[in-house]
Specification:
Helix content: 25-40%
Shape: globular
Mean pLDDT: 92
Radius of gyration: 19 Å
Order of helices and strands: EEHEEEEEHHHH
Number of helices: 5
Number of strands: 7
Strand order of the largest sheet: 1-3-5-6-7
Length: 213
């Protein structure tokens, strides 16, 4: 744990992003162009390089109250004042209240973690990983593309659950729900349901493709 994560409650600069859900251990590249966020990033770079990412629901216009702390690992200043940032997800947090909203939001947050597992999660993680490999294989066959999983796919259940959640596309609300879960087994089980449904759908499409080709 970092020194930041050992503090139960602290103030954290906040960066709301439409339909973006950051997970622990996962990278998030950013392009900073709004003036208030340039101020925020410059301030952060002079301190501990950490800020909170919260998902904005563009339809409802609401900001989630559970997010993930991001740490700036690299940055590049552009001639016109814009900035490119490379960040990495750290620990999740729950927003307790806003401390201030100008020039950028700062919140009082508490850190949250998954509960200690009551059983060995490796068999479940192995099952979910196989479902993921099935989905990738079927996707590659259906699109005639070379799609492969990375060699460094996490093998620890909690990290695997974050990796899968972060790579679900076009379902920000589902990702947010997975982020808010504090039970690794429950997160993996939900991902198993999503991947099983996706695998079955892709398998049916593959059969049709094979039939008519």
């Amino acid at each position: 744990m970092t020194s930041t994560s050992r503090i139960a409650v602290c103030e954290l600069p906040l960066f709301p992003l439409p339909e973006v859900v950051l997970f622990p251990t996962r990278p998030l590249p950013l392009h900073i162009f709004e003036f208030r966020y340039r101020i925020m990033m410059n301030t952060i770079l002079e301190s501990d390089r950490r800020f909170g990412v919260l998902m904005v629901d563009p339809v409802r216009g609401t900001i989630a109250n559970v997010g993930c702390c991001a740490e700036i690992t690299q940055h590049q200043r552009l001639p016109d004042g814009r900035m490119k940032m490379w960040t990495l997800g750290q620990q999740r947090f729950r927003l307790l209240k806003y401390v201030r909203e100008k020039p950028y939001r700062v919140g009082l947050v508490e850190w949250i973690e998954d509960k200690p597992p009551v059983k060995d999660l490796r068999p479940l993680a192995t099952e979910v990983e196989q479902l993921l490999r099935d989905v990738v294989r079927l996707s590659a066959k259906l699109t005639d593309q070379n799609i492969e999983l990375p060699d460094d796919l996490p093998d620890l259940p909690v990290e695997l659950s974050y990796w899968i959640a972060s790579n679900l596309y076009g379902v920000a609300a589902e990702q947010q729900a997975l982020l808010e879960l504090q039970d690794t087994a429950e997160r993996l089980e939900r991902e198993s349901e999503i991947l099983t449904s996706t695998r079955n759908h892709l398998a049916a499409r593959t059969v049709l493709k094979d039939t008519f080709n």
